[in-house]
Amino acid sequence: MVAIEVVDLALAYGELRAVDGVSLDVAEGEFVGILGPNGAGKTSTLELVEGLRRPDSGTVRVLGESPWPRNPRLLPRMGVQLQASSFFERLTAREQLRTFASLYAVSAGRADEWLERVGLVEKAATRVGDLSGGQAQRLSIACALVHDPELVFLDEPTAALDPQARRNLWDLLVGINEAGRTVVLTTHYMDEAETLCDRVAIMDRGRVLRFDTPAKLVRGLDAPTRITVAPGPDLERLRVVPGVGDVVATPDGTVLTTREPTLVLTGLAERDLLDGVQVHTGTLEDVFLDLTGREYRA
């Protein structure tokens, strides 16, 4: 079953084509990530799918229905965490979450359970305006999930989170997904996308450049393997190893570049040079930079 179907979606702000012919589909129970530089169109695409904006052209189907104009049948089935959330600043964290829960007829007790799940029990009586950025982010995620939606949209959910909170949120999202929920998130963290996502869409300038599993995206990258050998061996001895391309000495060891890693590792083993060897293949970050470039974005 298809949870989200997007066909040739477009949205412009004046002369800027924020979303320029995006097509993608998300299966029920799938975990999908959307990656891209600042201004790539990630958030605008999510807002169109969520029904927060009207597309200029193209079609969107969410759980079998159109999200625009605002569809009241879809609202209780979706959970949305926006990139920037607005709260009632004089309410406490508990009051804020219970207010969101009441909109969906969720009991106060279940709302309080979510404070524990996002690690905010000790801040339950703290006014929202006094929460740190990371704490407010966790509260925003709890508000998006408190009614147990079928489909969850998260826009950079781990921004401003410390490493512990980030990993705990990963565990929470994996559990939600394994329970059958469909999850779509945007992120700037490549390791997050590789760890969590079944498939990843890489966007730039309003278009989807690639959409596949992280493993297939990396395998499709035409990038050499880097093999680091511990300091010690003579460089000329390494250059004659079959399959070796460039040889570069660094303070941490000698880096061998190759497109035939098996051949090189076999040659190193024959020369008894495998101690401390490290093999670095392509990563999702390499794919991202190859597709979108390295220049600074506003």
TrEMBL record:
Cell compartments where the protein resides: Cell membrane
Record's keyword terms, sorted: Antibiotic resistance, ATP-binding, Cell membrane, Membrane, Nucleotide-binding, Translocase, Transport
Domain ABC transporter, chain residue ranges per copy: 4-230
Lineage, top ranks: Bacteria, Bacillati, Actinomycetota, Actinomycetes, Propionibacteriales
Domain of life: Bacteria
GO cellular component, one term: plasma membrane
Primary location: membrane
Name of the protein in question: ABC-2 type transport system ATP-binding protein
